């Protein structure tokens, strides 16, 4: 978990830039994505939790929806705090609770993305293996989902408990932490970075293998594979593109930013200011993930896609006479 440092030490000539970006630009951007994500994830939850949990893929996707909704809940608190309302009490709530919930939800969602890629890999490439049969069980997927939530809570919740020091004169989230809290903060930050890079490498391996397998299969039977490859690439691209765009920039600068918070004497005030600005900008890209995940649901899950098309068709049916059915069926990747 990163600190939200509302009184970050900044060079005098950069203070205005910081206040405009962090207290005017970012709140507007967070408000926009909060409104969009509320609609998109509300629709996703409405559809997903009305369809049966018939596969491991649906289990993981439903848990991604839960993680996104929890992450979305933290945005209004951040917007109000960045705009300067609520005083120190609101800043304390953000540091101790909503920031922890934000990172808990984000890394839980990342883990479920990697579990989806692993499940797809075994189902498509190792479909005859005993491991594939084991991982396809809904009960196993539910157990892995519970294990994921349990591990992430173990690493993240102490950040809330150990943020228990008296309010400092110069406010910062790190100053609210006990000595153990600062150590645990660094441990959990590096753990989360490790989770991200393991998930990223696993997803690249799994989806590269799937794409090659699909290409070889259609080439071997000498069929026109353009449509199949297009569907395959669309599913792969949607998940990897969202993952790379939202999370890679933030994790490139996260480790040096965390070190700048834990070892301030090794970084100049200007360098800490630059790292803080980069962290805030790339963190916004990570927050944008809640608006883009519904794209993954649409391309990766046939049940979700067909349910959404049916809902859209029923809405159109109320406004005009039906012309073309919506029995579209594109097989899951």
From TrEMBL:
Cellular component terms per the entry's GO annotation: plasma membrane
GO-annotated molecular function: G protein-coupled purinergic nucleotide receptor activity
**Pfam family example for this protein?**
7tm_1
In terms of InterPro entries, this protein maps to: GPCR_Rhodpsn, GPCR_Rhodpsn_7TM
Q: Where in the cell is it found?
A: Cell membrane
Every copy of the G-protein coupled receptors family 1 profile domain together lies at: 40-297
Transmembrane ranges, per UniProt, are 28-49, 56-77, 97-118, 139-161, 194-215, 236-252, 281-301
Query: What is its membrane topology?
Result: Multi-pass membrane protein
Sorted alphabetically, the keyword list is: Cell membrane, G-protein coupled receptor, Membrane, Receptor, Transducer, Transmembrane, Transmembrane helix
Domain of life from the UniProt record: Eukaryota
Instruction: Classify the main location.
Output: membrane
Family according to the record: Belongs to the G-protein coupled receptor 1 family.
What is the official name of this protein in its record? P2Y purinoceptor 14
- What's the gene? LOC113115394
């Amino acid at each position: 978990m990163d600190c939200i440092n509302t009184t970050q030490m900044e060079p005098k000539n950069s203070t205005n830039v910081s206040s405009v970006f962090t207290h005017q630009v970012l709140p507007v951007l967070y408000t926009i994505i909060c409104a969009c994500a509320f609609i998109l994830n509300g629709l996703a939850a409405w559809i997903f939790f009305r369809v049966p949990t018939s596969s491991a893929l649906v289990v993981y996707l439903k848990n991604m929806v839960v993680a996104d909704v929890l992450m979305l809940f933290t945005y209004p608190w951040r917007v109000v705090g960045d705009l300067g309302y609520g005083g120190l009490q609101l800043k304390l709530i953000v540091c101790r609770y909503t920031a922890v919930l934000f990172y808990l939800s984000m890394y839980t969602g990342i883990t479920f993305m990697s579990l989806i890629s692993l499940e797809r890999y075994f189902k498509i490439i190792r479909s005859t293996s005993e491991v594939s049969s084991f991982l396809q069980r809904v009960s196993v997927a539910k157990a892995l989902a519970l294990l994921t939530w349990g591990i992430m809570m173990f690493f993240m919740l102490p950040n809330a408990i150990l943020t228990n020091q008296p309010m400092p004169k110069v406010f910062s989230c790190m100053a609210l932490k006990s000595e153990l809290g600062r150590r645990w903060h660094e441990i959990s930050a590096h753990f989360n970075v490790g989770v991200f890079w393991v998930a990223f490498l696993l997803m690249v391996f799994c989806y590269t293998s799937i794409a090659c397998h699909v290409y070889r299969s259609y080439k071997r039977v000498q069929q026109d594979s353009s449509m199949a490859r297009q569907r395959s690439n669309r599913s792969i691209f949607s998940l990897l593109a969202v993952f790379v765009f939202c999370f890679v920039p933030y994790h490139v600068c996260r480790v040096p930013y965390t070190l700048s918070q834990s070892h301030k004497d090794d970084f100049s005030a200007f360098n800490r200011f630059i790292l803080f600005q980069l962290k805030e900008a790339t963190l916004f890209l990570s927050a944008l993930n809640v608006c883009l995940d519904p794209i993954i649901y649409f391309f990766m899950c046939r049940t979700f896609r067909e349910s959404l098309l049916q809902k859209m068709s029923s809405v159109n049916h109320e406004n005009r006479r039906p012309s073309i059915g919506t029995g579209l069926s594109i097989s899951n990747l």
